[in-house]
Amino acid sequence: MEIKSELKYTKDHEWIEIDGKIATVGITDYAQGELGDIVYVEIETLDEILDKEEVFGSVEAVKTVSDLFLPVSGKIVEVNQKIEDSPEIINEDPYNDGWIIKMEIENEEELNELLDAGAYSKLIGL
């Protein structure tokens, strides 16, 4: 189970990588493992401004459908086209090719409320 130290995490098992005002968001290795084989990703919020913890899309796996929650407030500026055609990339490489969205961060203060790698490890019992 991979947990990258340079990323921030949410209690809903999303990761966020910050690069200035742009953040890349995906689901964690733990989340993809719990979901099982991912067969479909639906993101219909491109170009929308959403609040922190608002649903921005969903991931459908063989076992279940899971909502995706925005880690911080902001505008969805890009959706990963690779996962629309090949959603299994999220299972294979959740932190690199399997990213889900890129967003413009609206409120940088909210970043302080996210979990670091150590806190996320404790959350999932590692």
Can you give keywords for this protein?
alpha+beta, OB fold (Dihydrolipoamide Acetyltransferase, E2P), 126 residues, 3-stranded antiparallel beta sheet, 18% helix, single chain, 6-stranded antiparallel beta sheet
Describe this structure in words.
- The protein is globular, with a radius of gyration of 13 Å.
- The chain has helices spanning 29-35, 81-85, 89-92, 117-123; strands spanning 8-9, 14-19, 22-27, 38-42, 49-50, 55-61, 65-69, 74-79, 101-105.
- The longest helix is centred in the N-terminal third of the chain and has 7 residues, at 29-35.
- A hairpin with a 3-residue loop joins strand 6 and strand 7.
- Helices cover 18% and strands 35% of the residues.
- The chain has a single domain, classed as RNA polymerase II/Efflux pump adaptor protein, barrel-sandwich hybrid domain (OB fold (Dihydrolipoamide Acetyltransferase, E2P), Beta Barrel), CATH 2.40.50.
- The chain is built from four helices and nine strands, in the order βββαβββββααβα.
- The strands form two sheets. A six-stranded antiparallel beta sheet has the order 1-2-3-9-8-5.
- The chain has 126 residues and is an alpha+beta fold.
Layout of secondary structure:
Elements (H helix, E strand, L loop, with lengths): L7 E2 L4 E6 L2 E6 L1 H7 L2 E5 L6 E2 L4 E7 L3 E5 L4 E6 L1 H5 L3 H4 L8 E5 L11 H7 L3
Antiparallel strand pairs: 1-2, 2-3, 3-9, 4-6, 5-8, 6-7, 8-9
